[in-house]
Amino acid sequence: MKIIQSAKEIQQFAKNNKKDGKTIGFVPTMGYLHEGHLALAKQARKENDLVIMSIFVNPLQFGPNEDFDSYPRDVERDQELAKKVGVDLLFIPSLEEMYPKEATIQLTVTKRVQALCGRQRVGHFDGVATVLTKLFHLTLPDRAYFGMKDAQQVAVIEGFVSDMNFPLDIVGVETIREQDGLAKSSRNVYLNEQERREAPHLYGALLKGKEIIQSGERHANHIISVMTDYITTNTSSKIDYVEVLSYPELESIELLHGKIILAVASKFSSARLIDNIILTV
Q: Does 180 fall in a domain?
């Protein structure tokens, strides 16, 4: 496995391989890899000649009171895990390499950001779009892989890739879960013992919502109420949101139809967790 830190060097590497007719699968991450990230790399390995993974904790997508400084980092461990799942090249740029000078433009995402996490994290998806624009230009992928645990992020990325005519496909990969249903996340390490026991109930609430939909319920407000009660009853967390929306538009609906997302976010003492299920009604 090759490791590159220079933006110029990785772009040249990608250009050379594209000239040779090789397809490139790209997995952008912020590191501290878990099975969710590795599942993206495994999928990329199956579908491409080369797999590039990036590790970069992007400051532009963290708000002023969020956990940029304390975000978990372990690059040596990440290198070993990436190598095991067949990553060909690991791009690990410094902050100065990615943002060498003050930007002359600003990207602003205007759709699919007014709900779920985007409602409270103003500017977050602007930061995601900015760093991905740079990474896509540097790695020149045919396909880029993202976990559906953050379904809003996937919806936003699909939108701006389409709008800006990036010549690549966005591949959403199913959420990887622990045996008890908890979605894999780098932030799970912040849960204390009791919270770790409670956290799978976020997924339990989603399954409860899915169950009543499959039984014929179509009123979004009732489904939201059932899921909210379930989380309140089974966890000590503070609910951030429980929503039922159209997908990928992420717009409010009263009566369920077509493709929808059930989504929850809840705050424990030192971790904010998200989860979702996407269904077609």
A: no
CA 121/CA 124 separation, integer angstroms: 5
Does the annotation place 275 within a ligand binding site?
A: no
Query: CB–CB of 52/27 below 8 Å?
Result: yes
Task: For residue 194, give its domain range.
Answer: 186-280
Tokens 């939909």 belong to: 213
pTM attached to this predicted model? 0.92
Asked if the structure places residue 55 within a domain, the reply is yes
- pLDDT tens track for 254-273: 999 999 999 999 999 999 99
Give catalytic residue positions: 37
Burial class (CB in 10 A: 0-12, 13-18, 19+), 196: middle
| Tokens found for residue 145 | 């892989």
Report whether the peptide linkage leading into residue 64 is cis, meaning its omega lies within 30 degrees of zero: no
Q: How far apart are CA 166 and CA 135, in angstroms?
A: 12
Alpha-carbon distance 244 to 212, whole Å? 13
Domain count, the chain: 2
33 marked as part of a ligand binding site: yes
Q: Flag whether 11 is marked binding.
A: no
